[in-house]
Design goal:
This protein is α/β, with parallel strands linked by helices and 125 residues long. Helices cover 22% and strands 38% of the residues. The protein contains 2 helices and 9 strands; from the N terminus they run ααβββββββββ. The radius of gyration is 23 Å and the shape is globular. The termini are far apart.
């Protein structure tokens, strides 16, 4: 067998092993991704308290099931959805980078007087 043919076979075997190793292991994002639905009604958020892990990806699906305009905001994380009409949704993905308890609110009039609030809590445990 020629030297180049052996090199190609070895390279193929190593490449196949690497592909198998990459496919067999779940990525950290897939293993830790947290999906949360937040429903907004004309009376508040449900749930109105979210507890998430520090540095773990979070996907928030926001649904306005009320009859009025609403929004969802967590200012400390620079998260502000557009104003949502009845039946509209918005999705937000991020990884919390600071532990603590933060306000989340709806202020569709943008007048710094939230119509209601909730808590977004980030823990390291």
């Amino acid at each position: 067998m020629s030297r180049s043919k052996i090199s190609v076979q070895v390279a193929c075997a190593i490449g196949a092993s690497l592909v198998f190793a990459l496919v067999a292991l779940p990525s950290p994002v897939e293993a830790k991704d947290q999906n949360v639905t937040v429903v907004i009604t004309d009376h508040g958020f449900s749930p109105n308290k979210l507890t998430e892990l520090l540095h773990h990806p979070v996907h928030l699906h926001i649904e306005n099931k009320g009859k009025e305009l609403h929004e969802f905001a967590i200012p400390e994380y620079r998260i502000y959805t557009r104003t949502l009409g009845p039946g509209e949704t918005s999705d937000v993905e991020f990884s919390p980078w600071q532990a603590g308890s933060f306000v989340m609110y709806s202020d569709p009039k943008a007048d710094s007087h939230p119509e209601f609030e909730g808590r977004f809590i980030v823990t390291d445990k």
